[in-house]
Specification:
There is one protein chain. By secondary structure, this protein is mainly α. It has two domains: 91 residues, Tyrosine recombinase, N-terminal domain (DNA polymerase, domain 1, Orthogonal Bundle), CATH 1.10.150; 164 residues, hpI Integrase, Chain A. Helix content is 51%, strand content 5%. The strands form two sheets. Strands 1-2-3 form a three-stranded antiparallel beta sheet. It has a two-stranded antiparallel ribbon with strand order 4-5. Helix 1 packs antiparallel against helix 2 and helix 5 runs antiparallel to helix 6. The longest helix is centred in the first third of the chain and has 20 residues. The protein is elongated, with a radius of gyration of 25 Å. The termini are far apart.
Length: 307
């Protein structure tokens, strides 16, 4: 069977069984087809030595790009194993290029408060501009629910569920998840929905579709400028990052945060755990069982044996 047919079958599996996004499928196809051109003979027959030489040719690439290409190879050969096309996965013998994922910019509590103060002022009064009410709701959902920009702007009107206690969000890989709505977000939503045109498909419509991520980015920076904050410090992802970081600082569980952010791998969520080191010391000093250093011990409930 040719490499082309096997690559097609592999990508079909990735789409159907793993819900891989269109961008991932496109990148993997490009990576595997390039590898097939480089390898003399069938890519499906390549051994570890050949793959090491192939990866050596990728040294000039960014570590993240080389890591993605290796990931494509590993998953492709794992698929071939599962299909009985070969007995091993030679890509597992290749060391993964070292990558360091940069931390997003940090937004302080004071900056967040100033943004909300400005948005609240603009959306106040008996008949505030619809654009101001929309901006307030967008801000509430970015910081209050941690949505990705693409998830937020493309929310359908029917995403509101559970008596407005949750949003049904369609995220990466076309996977749906429930995201809780804060009371503040529900209040902003109650103000915004009556301003929507009847029959509007989208929660944030614009023309025949919904507002774009670029427009959301622009609106946030314009709001920041009016609030006296450096616009370069603000973006939808910075607010999503602030949502995660501030929740963790408040004692949120990492697994719960993973679900809310829609991360498939908790390792992705762990990038948000750069909590203030002073708070970590405080947690150990106050919460650890050995924290009591005065010779006493925390009270422990001991069940009395039944007679």
């Amino acid at each position: 069977m040719s490499d082309g047919v096997l690559i097609d079958r592999f990508l079909e599996m990735m789409a159907a069984e793993r819900g891989a996004s269109r961008n991932t499928l496109t990148a993997y196809r490009r990576d595997l087809e390039q590898a097939a051109e480089w390898v003399k003979g069938r890519l499906a027959d390549a051994d570890a030595a050949v793959l090491r030489k192939l990866m050596a040719d990728y040294q000039s690439l960014a570590a993240s790009s080389a890591a993605r290409k290796l990931s494509a190879l590993r998953q492709f050969f794992a698929f071939l194993q599962g299909e009985g096309e070969r007995a091993d996965n030679p890509a597992l013998d290749i060391a993964r290029p070292a990558t360091r994922r940069p931390l997003p910019r940090i937004l302080t509590h004071a900056h967040v408060a100033r943004l909300f103060e400005q948005a609240g002022e603009e959306a106040s009064g008996e008949t505030p501009p619809a654009a101001a009410v929309r901006m307030l709701l967008l801000l509430e959902l970015l910081y209050g629910s941690g949505l990705r920009a693409s998830e937020l702007v493309s929310l359908p009107r029917r995403a509101i569920a559970g008596e407005r206690e949750y949003l049904i969000v369609r995220g990466k890989g076309d996977k749906e998840r429930l995201v809780p709505l804060s009371e503040r977000a529900r209040e902003a939503l109650d103000r915004w929905v009556p301003l929507l045109a009847d029959g509007s498909t989208w929660l944030f419509p614009s023309g025949k579709a919904h507002i774009s991520r670029v427009r959301l980015f622009q609106m946030l920076r314009e709001l920041a400028a009016r609030a006296g904050i450096d616009p370069a410090a603000i973006s939808p992802h910075v607010l999503r990052h602030a949502f995660a970081t501030h929740l963790l600082e408040g004692g949120a569980d990492l697994r719960a945060l993973q679900l809310m952010l829609g991360h498939a791998d908790i390792a992705t969520t762990e990038i948000y755990t750069h909590v203030d080191s002073r708070r970590l010391v405080e947690l150990v000093n106050k919460r650890h069982p050995l924290a009591r250093m005065d010779g006493t011990h925390p009270e422990v409930d001991v069940a009395t044996p039944s007679s």
